[in-house]
Design goal:
The protein is of the alpha+beta class. Among the domains are: 145 residues, Endopeptidase. Chain P, domain 1 (Glutathione S-transferase Yfyf (Class Pi), Chain A, domain 2, Up-down Bundle); 63 residues, no CATH class; 162 residues, Neurolysin, domain 3. The chain is built from 26 helices and 9 strands. Strands 3-4-5-9-6 form a 5-stranded mixed beta sheet, with helices on both faces. A hairpin with a 2-residue loop joins strand 7 and strand 8. Helix 12 packs across helix 13 and helix 16 crosses helix 17.
């Protein structure tokens, strides 16, 4: 195989600066050709009566090797598509993605390969193999069935066609959101229009203007700008325009109505998901999605969500009434509109708790937060996270690479940190896999993570200052990263986050958020950006007092999202179509307390369910939050930052990946089944 293509290199880390759009398709073609040859060889060996004692290594391990070669080439391309998008790369990505999807669909329906894996499961001594090895085989057999291996023609071909079309549509959905986000801007030349926005927010808008070669300030739809305007701008008209543009992205409404419209895309995605589920024998896509989750039936999920709605909605209603009364009496807002919500809430929080978010941000400079987060990892898990000792090739000057080492200094993993918002970069925050842990012979490939956020860029001498919500976001994604990087499972398909039930995979990430409210943990990083002073006790006390401020409204918003997503997939009727807005309205009637304007088009940019892995699974955030709150309870019982409890959590959950069911790992750590009241307690809603 030629090595001049950087995507075909055997180097430990990708050579990002050398990867060009022209490299993508040739690399994927070459890797897929080798993959096909390898599978053919593996199948042929079985037909020749290979000794059964070698079957696991020669079937399962060989597939892991082939899969890792593809991941080596594709992971950096997929990542660059998300963080450094351009027209050429997007075209190459879409072409290569279609090839990979077609290949994966065919592989999932390869009956000869399925027979080889089935033979491994039926071989003498299989029950005595290690738990991870058995889990790898069991997961593979399940995935074959979910890929339509048992289907007959014409259903087999149709299932593959659907998979390919869904891949294109989800990519198109994501691209439309990115393009719509980048398309809108409002140039502000009169500083009076920015009244109420603190200096840190103005510096964000000033930096966006400078990037475009403009004087003054630029309101955009990037998260730091939207947050600054909607939370602080006294100019109600500006708040309304930003909300209007942001909440109508990629839709038939708003300033770019119809230009990037995802309406038809959503219709097709939901129709194809339903058809694919029915081909596999499921009633709908919601039922199919539970094949890889802890929850067993759609009714169980809906009961879980509706039980929480019953608990949270009365609280949320009271909170909204209090906010409306405050907005009328103190802000002279006769009607509380959606674009007033964050602004009025911030004013009420300031009045009630004297807790100024801007004052708080001064104690969360990003460099200090990063150092403290890494220091916490040392105390909990006995690891260190330090800048790489040698230069590492990255895709943008702001990107850092860190090495994770054990107490003796032995390398365990690595992580790329890309933390600032910029054009061509997808919004939001996420962790993704660059390399998976894999032991092949005497060598071990160490896990490498991508950790991506969209924080405000530094301005002059002032570092990026985070809101407390931003801090929790960073800790959340680092929790995912630790799950990936601290795995002790040597088989990539069931190590780290891979293969873990989707409604449990958020446990480690949500667990980490709890430390953002703990004094011991905060003392590791909450330090004033200019003076170095630690977060004052009286400010911390006010922060704690405000912790559950509007918790009911927040929880109801999450319940609205989860219920909408699940109903959308559970109640799909091909005779009636997707009914996206109708379903959203039904979910709002059950869960919401404030209804936005009729022109709001939140679903059209809901990438989690239309372009991510959360279709019929957004409820997973709340399901996993029950588990994570209960896990944190174990730490609280031992003083919170406790090395012994951290070691047990690492051994029983973080380290085992999908080698056993998540519930089993939870019970091994906690010593009992989860207690649902832990979630309500964490929200202060008992």
């Amino acid at each position: 195989m030629p090595t001049e293509n950087p995507l075909l290199s055997d180097a430990v880390l990708p050579a990002f600066s050398r990867i060009g759009a022209a490299d993508v398709v040739p690399a994927i073609d070459a890797v897929l050709a080798d993959y096909r040859t390898g599978i053919d060889r593996l199948i042929a060996a079985g037909a020749q009566g290979q000794p059964q004692t070698d079957m696991f290594d020669q079937v399962m391990l060989e597939q892991e090797r082939l899969d890792q070669r593809l991941a080596h080439a594709w992971a950096p391309v997929s990542h660059l598509h998300a963080v450094a998008d351009n027209k050429e790369l997007r075209a190459a990505y879409e072409q290569a993605e279609e090839k990979i999807t077609d290949f994966a669909s065919a592989l999932g329906q390869n009956r000869d390969l399925y027979a080889r894996v089935q033979a491994v499961a039926e071989a003498p001594g299989f029950a005595q193999r290690s738990r991870p090895e058995r889990a790898l085989v069991e997961h593979a057999l399940r995935d074959f069935k979910l890929s339509g291996v048992a289907l007959e023609e014409p259903a087999r071909t149709r299932f593959r066609e659907i998979a390919n079309e869904l891949s294109k549509l989800t990519t198109a959905f994501s691209n439309a959101v990115l393009d719509a986000t980048d398309a809108w801007q409002e140039h502000i030349e009169d500083e009076r229009d920015l009244a109420g926005i603190p200096e840190s927010g103005r510096s964000v808008l000033r930096e966006y203007a400078r990037e475009r070669g403009l004087d003054g300030w630029l309101a955009t739809l990037k998260q730091p700008a939207v947050q600054a305007v909607l939370t602080y701008a006294d100019n109600r008209s500006l708040r309304e325009r930003v909300y209007w543009a942001y909440q109508t992205r990629a839709s038939d409404q708003g300033p770019d109505a119809g230009k990037f419209d995802n309406s038809e895309c959503m219709e097709k995605i939901l129709a194809l998901r339903f058809e694919a589920a029915q081909l596999l024998g499921f009633a709908n896509a919601a039922e199919e999605s539970l094949a890889t989750k802890m929850a067993e039936t759609p009714d169980e999920v809906l009961a879980f969500l509706r039980n929480l709605i019953v608990r949270a909605r009365p609280v949320a209603q009271r909170e909204l009434e209090e906010l409306r009364a405050f907005a009328l009496s103190e802000l002279e807002l006769e009607t509380l509109e959606s674009w007033d919500l964050a602004y009025a809430s911030e004013k009420l929080r300031l009045a009630r708790y004297a807790l100024d978010e801007e004052q708080l941000k001064a104690y969360f400079p990003l460099p200090s937060v990063m150092d403290g987060m890494f220091a916490l990892a040392v105390k909990l898990y006995g690891i260190s996270v330090e800048p790489a000792r040698e230069p590492v090739d990255v895709w943008h000057p702001d990107v850092r690479y860190c090495e994770v080492r054990d107490a003796e200094g032995k390398p365990l993993a690595g992580v790329y940190l890309d933390l600032y918002a910029r054009s061509g970069k997808r919004g939001g925050a996420w962790m993704d896999v660059c390399r998976a842990r894999f032991r092949d012979g005497d060598g071990v490939q160490l896990p490498i993570a991508f950790l991506t956020c969209n924080f405000a860029v530094p301005s002059g001498e002032r570092p990026s200052l985070l809101t407390h919500d931003d801090v929790q976001t960073l800790f959340h994604e680092f929790g995912h990263g630790l799950h990936h990087m601290l795995t002790r499972i040597d088989l990539p398909s069931i190590g780290g986050i891979d293969g873990v039930e989707w409604d449990a995979v958020e446990l480690p990430s949500q667990f980490m958020e709890n430390f953002c409210w703990n004094r011991q943990a905060l003392d590791l990083f909450a330090k004033h950006w200019s003076s170095g002073e630690r977060l004052p006790d009286e400010l911390f006390d006010r922060m704690l007092a405000a912790r559950h401020f509007q918790a009911g409204m927040f929880l109801c918003r999450q319940l609205e999202f989860g219920l909408f997503d699940f109903l959308l997939h559970a109640n799909y009727d091909p005779a009636r179509g997707a009914r996206v807005m109708e379903t959203l309205e039904a979910a709002r009637r059950e869960a919401a307390v404030l209804h936005p304007p009729a022109w709001q088009r939140f679903p059209h940019a809901f990438t989690h369910i239309f372009a991510g892995g959360y279709a019929a699974g957004y409820y997973s955030y709340l399901w996993a939050e029950v588990l994570s709150a209960d896990v944190f309870g174990a730490f609280e019982e031992h003083g919170v930052i406790d090395a012994a409890t951290g070691a047990r959590f690492r051994d029983e959950f973080l380290g085992v990946g999908a080698s056993r069911p998540a519930l089993e790992s939870f019970v091994a750590f906690r010593g009992r089944a989860p207690r649902p009241d832990a979630l309500l307690r964490s929200y202060g809603l008992q």
